[in-house]
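Reviewer 2 asked us to include a model.

Predict the structure of this chain.
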Amino acid sequence: MSTMFPGGGSADSTVVATPRLTFRVPPAFFEFPVHETEEQVGQALIELAQDVYPQGTPELWFQYAATQLPVVAEMMEAGVSYAGFCLLDLDGRRSTATVTGALLESVPDGRKMTAASVAAELAGLSGEGAQVETVWLTAGEAVVRFTADVTTLPAEVTDSGRPEDVEVGKIAVFLPLRREAEMVLFELSTPCMQDWDLYSDLFFTIVNTIEVHGESAVEAPVPEQPADVPPSGPADATNGVHVPVQAQSVRDVFG
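Predicted model (structure tokens):
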């Protein structure tokens, strides 16, 4: 069980607080150290590298930590409360996806937004290839946005050993807490578009475990699982490495 605190705190925080939100992530996920102090995050990334590349070398672990440090710093700056990723072995082919979650203390101008108002705003801001719709999660009515962006993978994580541009599919779930000016935001991203159905199922399994505690909980009927709608233009991409990774089977990830 993972928890979120207002302001991006965690269950390991030295500040005593009541968790505002709990959710479940499959145990096979590796977690980025978004709750560590600035002094400890480097060592935590070295330890993460050792878990991801158990047969690696100190040089590889240091290189991985150095590559991920600005990514983790950006997450911490954005108030991300949870960040994890899975590495799957799909019949000998490596595949990966990342999930992040944040409990935002306030929305613009302190307005108490509804799913309908969030959907309308996102529809106006999203590009031509994006899809926006409202769904019912166990925790209440939410908005889902499907997008696809092009990003550059660094050379150290590609099979070719060169930087490569790949299409990254993304799902964002916005859950407004209507009794407070707060917003729950969960996002999934993957460069492995051939595995989109697998990851979208996994992501909606995660967000359907969200439980909001306290007076901000939104009472709602038990929803039907939303249909998976992939962004247009899937691309074939893999996330290769030069040494064996601690990849998990699909059964391990789903538990």
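DSSP finds five helices and ten strands in the chain. The mean pLDDT is 77. We have added this to the supplementary material.
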